[in-house]
Amino acid sequence: MVKKAKVEVFGIPEQNAGSGACSCSCGGCGCPSIRTDELYGKMEVFINGSDVKDITELSFIDIENNDLEQYGNVKKAIDIGYPLPLTRLNGELVFYGDIKGAALYNEIKKLNIE
Fold this sequence. Notes:
The longest helix is centred in the middle third of the chain and has 13 residues, at 36-48. This protein is 27% helix and 20% strand. The chain has helices spanning 36-48, 72-79, 101-110, and strands spanning 5-11, 56-62, 86-89, 92-96. The chain starts with a strand and ends with a helix. By secondary structure, the chain is an alpha+beta fold. It has one domain (5-110): Glutaredoxin (3-Layer(aba) Sandwich). Strands 2-1-3-4 form a four-stranded mixed β-sheet, sandwiched between helices.
């Protein structure tokens, strides 16, 4: 049976992404920054163009307009200072501060390795 991937990205759309979003992955060297909604869009295009698109449900949750109480591990990560955006895969926090389509793709593929 194929396992589905529910991917939830939490952040503030118009805010620049946190650590790792610059081209050298340092998060603070002065490289051009990228907004979270743009970063999510790139990831979405990557996943939707891949062989996991049919088993993947993608969603973006704006943390300023949603109650985070229902997302316990996300609320906790934000409270202790993890950089946005945060990415969950099937309820488990897998990335913070950046969204890389290839890394997410690999995590989704791992779900169906037996």
